[in-house]
Each structure stands twice: as structure tokens, then as C-alpha cells.
Amino acid sequence: MSRDAATTIIQTLREHGHVAYLAGGCVRDRLLGVAPKDHDVATDAPPDVVQKLFRRSQPVGEAFGVILVYAPGINPNADAEPQRGEASGTDRPQRRFVPIEVATFRTEGVYSDGRRPDEVNFTTAEHDAQRRDFTINGLFEDPLHPDTPNPDADGHGVIDYVGGRADLESKTLRAIGDPDRRFGEDYLRMLRAVRFTTRLGFTLDPSTAQAIRNLSKFLSQISRERIGGELQLMLTTPHFAASADLLQQLRLDGPTLNEDHLDAEMSVLTRLSPDAGYAAKLTAWMIDRHGLAAATPARVRRWRKALCLSNDDTDTLNRILRQLHAAEDWATMSVAKRKRLLSMTDWDQTLLVWRAMKRADAIDADTPALIEDGIGLAPAPLVDGADLIAMQLKPGPLFKTLLDQVYDAQLEGRVTDRQAALAWVRQSASEG
What we know:
4 domains, cca-adding enzyme, domain 2, alpha+beta, Beta Polymerase, domain 2, 21 helices, magnesium, 432 residues
């Protein structure tokens, strides 16, 4: 486990006269009763000392004093192990090594670009805690306490210089120190505040919330890739609707999506199933903000640019919207058109959005009969292009029309076998 691996690193650092603790999210999660995804170590040992003490290590943020150390333990991700030459020239280690980030305690200077500090200085644990984002992320833990007593630790081995324990107990997300300064150091922290608040079910501290409202316009200075990545983290959790709503309350919706702030009711997104994928959630949010009629390819292009959406997510979003627009005509659709719609790629995602819009009753009622009619939604075609070529028909507009029409006839049971389908094509071709 990564905790055991991190504890081994801390033990080694202690044996060489250094202060070292577990730091940040892993401490927070343990106190909340959540299994941490990974464990980070913070220490007063300079980066070069860390590398000397741990043969299997490599710098990953040397300017910030961050070294990746491969410590003994069960590594669930074999690909995370260093290759030859990556870790001080050593051979690839066995699979029982876990990558642990070891960071030197530091203070940070001015953030001229609103993302990275212009200057980093190594310091003590207390000063290191003060430069972190939120109080609940500014906690340290001594995993060797109480076996090796630490006067700075409480009964759980936790070292708290910023009031994080009290905020965990009151379920409050609070910026460390001056919130204007904390967010001014990295404006993406405003989105992180939303994600932590909704994911943990916390309340946002009023002064922290007001600072975000005051600084929300500066989010546009952050790269669209970072904004999109943070939004995807929010929307791919069960708390996606609450996240979108809080973004709006804090006036972060506009700079996030690169459009005007709106006081929209999150009705579709709130009703959307948690089984919906990222593109379906974006679709629901777009409909809440602009309505289905205005959820157009042009708006998808704008959101793609604003959020750096992948090609796959963009294609899925466009497909869902096309299918939603098509579903509006369900009542007048032929059986063949209905079956074609139900067989389309991503229809399952479209249906989740349609249900969240409270418009799926007719489709849900009609679908079982279409599936169980003895034909099915998407049977293998009785006739294909090779059959038409064998009839001396030339590929072209009529070619595709005939294939579509004979397949519609098959879907509706008007032709039931191959011979009947071929006869249907011959007659239609002669009439065409």
C-alpha cells in the first residue's frame, strides 16, 4: 500500500535527522474516513539530499523541490515504475515499488502569471502549511506517532497549523489566510474550491466565497485546458449538478464556459442520472442554460474551445443533440425511423437526457414492443451493396436510397426474407 511505502520513506528521512510527514489530501481523506488514492510526503530535506538517500528516485518538479521516490510496496500500476535511466541510472525495479512524491517544505513568492510562483524558498513545516490552498489540505500527519512521540502531533498524529481539523469537523471549506491572496496565486483554485465543497458535502466559508465572486473574472487568465480538466473532474462525480449550481452562484460559470453569466435553473442537470457520461452532462447543462432549440452545433464549437473538449467528447455531444432534436418528432415517426433512432450510437446517453427533460414517457412506453416484435431494432440487412451491383446497378444516389428503403421495409416487416427483399429492390429500381 502507498501508506506503507510513504511511511518507509519518512522513517528513512528521520533516521538521517530530517523532519518528514504525510501531507495534504491523504491526511484529509483519512480523517474523513475515505481511503486516500495516494500518499505524499513533505520534508525539510532538500531535493538533492532526498535523491542521495533514495537510489530509485527522479525529479518531477525540481524547481519546487518535488522528487518522485520509488519505495518498497505493492504497486497497483506497473507502468508507473521507472525505466532504466529514469531513476538515477538504475535498472527497472521489480513490480513491488510504489511511486511517492516527496516535496521539500517551501514558501512561495509572487505569482505573476496567476499560476506559478516567481520564487520558491525552502522552509519549515509551519510555513509550508501556510502557502497551501485550503485549511483541510494544509494538514500533516506523523505516521510514526505515538511509537516515536511527536510533541507537535495530536492523539491521531495530526499536525495542524491552519485550523484544518476544526474545519473538517464543521464541514467548512476555507482558504488559508487571506483568500484574495490564495486565489490570486492560482486562479484555478477557485474551481478547486467548488469541486472540494460539493464533493465533500461541505459549506463554503463566506469570506472565501466572496473572494471568489470578486475574482471570478480573472479565471479567464487560466489556460482553457486547465479549466476544462477541472470541470471534467467536477462533472464526472455524483455531485455534478451541485457543482454546476455553485459555479453559477459564484459567477464562475461565465468565465468557465467563456460566455455570459446566467442565473439558470439546473432542472435537467439535477434530474440527470449519475450513470450519464461527461458529454451527456454537458448536454443537460447546455439545455438548462440555453434551451434545446439553442443547443446548436455552433454552441458546441464554442464550448469545445472553452473547455478544450476531446474529439470523442465533442462528437458524442453533437450526436446526443442531434438525437434529442430527432426525438421531438417521435409521435409522427414511422416504425423504421423509430428503430433507427433507438439503434444509434450513444442513444442510451440521449435517453438519459430525454428522461431528465421529462419527455421520455412515450419513447419508454413504445420501445419494448419495437424490441420484441420478432424483427428487432437492428437486424442484419437482407440485402447489401454487393447484391445491387450483381443486379447491374451503379453506385450513386439511387444506390443508397434503395438500400435505405429496403432496410426500412425489413424493419417494418414488409419484407421478411432475402428473396422478397431482392424482389422489392428490382421492382423499386425499375420504377425509379
